[in-house]
Amino acid sequence: MTFGSDARPHVLVTGGAGYIGSHTTLELLTAGYDVTVLDNLSNASSESLRRVGSIVGGKINFWRGDVRDGALLDRVFGGEEVGQQKISAVVHFAALKSAPESVDNPLDYYNCNVSGTISLLTAMSRHNINSFVFSSTAAVYGTPQQGVKLIPEQHDTRPENPYGRSKLMVENIIRDVCTANKDMRAVILRYFNPVGAHESGIIGESPRGTPGNLVPYVLQTVAGQRSHLNVTGLDWPTVDGSGVRDFIHVVDLAKGHVAALSYAKQLHQSTPATVSSTAILADPTIHPTCPTFNMGTGSGSSVLQLISTMESVTGLPVPWVKAPRRPGDVAEVVANPAKANGTLGWEASLGVEEMCRDAWRWKSENMDGYDGPEGPVGVEVKEGVRVVIGGGAEREGREPGSPGPNR
Ligand SMILES: NC(=O)c1ccc[n+]([C@@H]2O[C@H](COP(=O)([O-])OP(=O)(O)OC[C@H]3O[C@@H](n4cnc5c(N)ncnc54)[C@H](O)[C@@H]3O)[C@@H](O)[C@H]2O)c1
């Protein structure tokens, strides 16, 4: 099944309750898609989806469950809501995402990220669903080659941890599936450093425990929840000695997924370009039915520049201390986003100031993320039961806002 010409195509978003998934769900609803989310809530709360529903006034079908559960996927893909099309495309976020954690728990990462995607692609094949957008990462590149300022898609891939390797393995699996199944169209998106929050301040990143990413850590420091930030490495050959990254506003990134789905539709409607297998072997990112795109801004900011912007946006200090470099860190990782700009017709429009402003609005209005004073908050959802969130009524679950052990 490919996209039909009827109104409101229906998309499954795996991991849609998470940080990037919830922002993308919002943009998809806004763009006129019906959305079903499948998320096991291992790193999220259903509260994010209730809030997405409240922002757009739309409803979301939500299944709490795991992408490795093939029987559940059959129910998700087979299920029908009156007035909705069957699911015709999948945006796949569900994954474990901590590079350092993956070093200690490689099997968990390969199991969730690789086996999870195989389970999903297999179920899609059973249900003849042939449009796929995949969340990959700049971690697949590893350390940029000497002299490369803006990393292009065809850059060597030498991921330096099991997380990055799991994503590269999945990229290759998707390409092979696209080669074998002539009806399949997939788009692989390699994200650089997603930060920020929706401008409403109602949804954002809600990390558990010690944040693994820079911005949530900075926000906790600004908010006084941490005494200081460790700036790891001040001796890099960069503008001020601190590491340089390509920060991208999560809303820009979410809109990139809407562009990627449109592009998948275009690929269905056109005859694939003829590209020799030798050329694809030399550069897998040019696969004609499974292209790969960098999702970045093309402009780097140093960690110290980001701290300084956060201080000026919040009017509050970010106490920091110098700390040694961490193994595996690199000086500068910035995308060349020209391919996404030209082919997807998508471009990041928000700068570091907007990223800091929106991240702080979210943080200052939600000090504990989606948790309430008594712990997790949200629609209580039993595993394997579909719940309709938003659109005025939550069905088959408790009222939103009531505490429940649902994360
Ligand atoms: N945030 C980043 O810096 C970043 C950078 C590059 C790529 N990515 C990729 O983007 C995707 C989304 O990242 P995020 O930052 O929103 O992370 P997140 O943890 O907030 O979202 C992932 C979601 O997937 C769910 N999930 C995990 N395993 C699952 C499973 N087996 N079955 C069902 N649901 C499952 C989690 O509960 C969570 O809601 C991930 O694939 C990640 O690898 C993220």
Describe this structure in words.
With 407 residues, the protein is an alpha/beta fold. It has a domain at 10-192 and 248-296 and 337-345 and 371-390: NAD(P)-binding Rossmann-like Domain (Rossmann fold, 3-Layer(aba) Sandwich). It has helices at 19-30, 47-56, 70-78, 99-104, 106-126, 162-180, 214-222, 250-269, 277-282, 303-314, 338-344, 352-365; strands at 10-14, 34-39, 59-64, 87-92, 131-137, 185-191, 193-195, 229-232, 244-245, 247-249, 292-295, 301-302, 320-323, 332-333, 371-372, 375-376, 386-390. The strands form five sheets. An eight-stranded mixed β-sheet has the order 11-6-5-4-1-2-3-17, with helices on both faces. A three-stranded mixed β-sheet has the order 12-9-14. The protein has a two-stranded parallel sheet with strand order 7-10. Helix 1 runs parallel beside helix 2 (47-56), helix 3 runs parallel beside helix 5 and helix 5 packs parallel to helix 6 (162-180). The radius of gyration is 20 Å and the shape is globular. The structure holds nicotinamide-adenine-dinucleotide. In the C-terminal section; belongs to the aldose epimerase family. Mutarotase converts alpha-aldose to the beta-anomer. It is active on D-glucose, L-arabinose, D-xylose, D-galactose, maltose and lactose. Pathway: Carbohydrate metabolism; galactose metabolism; Carbohydrate metabolism; hexose metabolism.
Mean pLDDT: 92
Please give the largest β-sheet.
8 strands, mixed
Helix content: 25-40%
CATH homologous superfamily of the domain at 10-192 and 248-296 and 337-345 and 371-390? NAD(P)-binding Rossmann-like Domain
For the biggest β-sheet, the strand order reads 11-6-5-4-1-2-3-17
Poorly predicted ranges: 1-5, 395-407
CATH-level-2 architecture of the domain at 10-192 and 248-296 and 337-345 and 371-390? 3-Layer(aba) Sandwich
Which ligands are bound? nicotinamide-adenine-dinucleotide
Overall structural class, as computed from helix and strand content, comes to alpha/beta
Number of strands: 17
How much of the polypeptide forms β-strand, as a percent range?
15-25%
| String of helices and strands | EHEHEHEHHEHEEHEEEHHEEHEEHHEEE
Q: How far do the termini sit from each other?
A: 33 Å
CATH fold-level label of the domain at 10-192 and 248-296 and 337-345 and 371-390 = Rossmann fold
Give me the Rg, rounded. 20 Å
Q: What's the helix count?
A: 12
CATH class of the domain at 10-192 and 248-296 and 337-345 and 371-390: Alpha Beta
